[in-house]
Amino acid sequence: MSKDAKHLFLPDHMAGERGRAETLYGDVQSHIMDADTEPVLDRLVESSDKFLDLDREQASDDLKLHMGFLQLDPGEEKDFLNTVTAGLRDTDREGWESQSRLELNRTYGGKASARLKEVQEVLELNPGLKKFLHTHNLSYHPKIIDLVVKKAPGIKKKLKKG
Predict the structure, then answer these.
(1) What is the pTM of this model?
(2) Distances (CA, A) of 96 to 48, 60, 90, 102, 146
(3) First-to-last C-alpha distance (Å) of the chain
(4) DSSP code of 126?
(5) Contact 82, 144 (CB under 8 A)
């Protein structure tokens, strides 16, 4: 990230306890600040006339704040952006919810419902992310659910510190 790059700060209720680095440089890690969000933004504009006048800088910042909230590492950040881009292109979304349920059960067995509840709790903490997923029909995408299931305990732990 360049010296004159902006810093993105999560709202206090989404940040938990901030260390010195987050206080000075923002909550969103530099690898996310440098992420290429253009393919997602392009796909949003292609998908509907309602995004024709999309403020690309604001939309990119919002997407980066969502990724910062999810505490994505560099590999997860790329996977998330690729999944969102592919999900926006996918017109066959009928099976996502059942596929997500099946994968949760296979992975977590008798704890699948509890893990899904954690996902819902985490999304309630970030209304912007929840709205983004719902607006673009990505809420039941199996890879999105899997990512948030994996990240939920860390997010909840960080927020309980604050």
Answers:
(1) 0.83
(2) 21, 26, 11, 10, 12
(3) 27
(4) -
(5) no
Render the burial of 110-133: b for 16+ CB within 10 Å, e for the rest.
eebeebbebbeebbebbeebbebb
The closest of 87, 94, 75 to 143, measured between CA atoms, is: 87
- Tokens in use for 126? 């970030």
Q: Which tokens sit at 88?
A: 């926006």
pLDDT tens, residue order, the chain (162 aa): 444 557 777 777 677 776 766 665 566 788 888 899 999 999 999 988 888 998 999 999 999 999 999 999 999 999 999 999 999 888 778 899 999 999 999 999 999 999 999 999 999 999 999 999 999 989 999 999 999 999 999 988 887 754
In whole angstroms, give the CA distance from residue 162 to residue 151.
18
- Tell me the one-letter amino acid at 29: Q
